[in-house]
Amino acid sequence: MAFLHQSFKDTLLDLVFPQQCLVCGKEGKLFCAKCRAGLSYISPPVCSLCGHHISNDGVCPMCLSGKIHLDGLRSVFNFEGGIAQAIYSLKYHNLRSVAPLLGTFMADYLKQNPMPADIIVPVPLHPSRLKYRGYNQSLLLARELCRQTGIELADKWLERSLATASQARTQNRIERLANVNNAFIFKYPTTTAPRVIIIDDVATTGATLNACAATLKEAGALSVWGLTIARER
Ligand SMILES: [Zn+2]
Ligand SMILES: [Zn+2]
After folding, report:
1. Which residues are CB-neighbours of 75 under 8 A, at least 6 positions away?
2. CATH of span 40-231
3. Rounded to the nearest whole angstrom, what is the distance from the C-alpha of residue 37 to the centroid of ligand 2?
4. Which residues form the Double zinc ribbon domain (predicted)?
């Protein structure tokens, strides 16, 4: 169906699989008005580096003690409730039609909370994971974000290193951080120095986005911000 216009494709899909609210099942939209109103936005003030909700403006104790390559990390929602269900559907139930809506949340966030950006880079999937899932959910989100904001997409800049051991097989946090630090390779041939936003679906510790930032900065990026749909508390 590659020749079909995207919106026509969506309409066709809606006819075959009418959209239902991901939370309560009501027919119509992926989030009905009631469930959409119940989504858990991260409220200010947030740590100026990692974006976690904190009680006062400034930098949280965790960020004060760590090595951070990101210039800042922000997430739209807490990873819970309807948003957690939506992300789960996107990643594990092949529900790609949820990506435009999630991308819209990100675009709205970016319009209200601008970040320095010339380029948007999605966090790449490990090739074996990509083969298994068939698509990179972060790329779907990044594509939508670029479409709505006009920022350029660079989905070939970063690749997962094939040599990286799977995180589950590594033992402790220090090993995991060392592991993720060598997880990305910069593939772009030029040495321009752009301002980058990296996109992922969920930030847990932020280690993956931080490793991407380290790689991009080594390659000459002026600034690297992270933006995710949701954040684990
Ligand atoms: Zn609902
Ligand atoms: Zn912080």
Report:
1. 42, 51, 203, 227, 228, 229, 230, 231
2. 3.40.50.2020
3. 27
4. 12-64
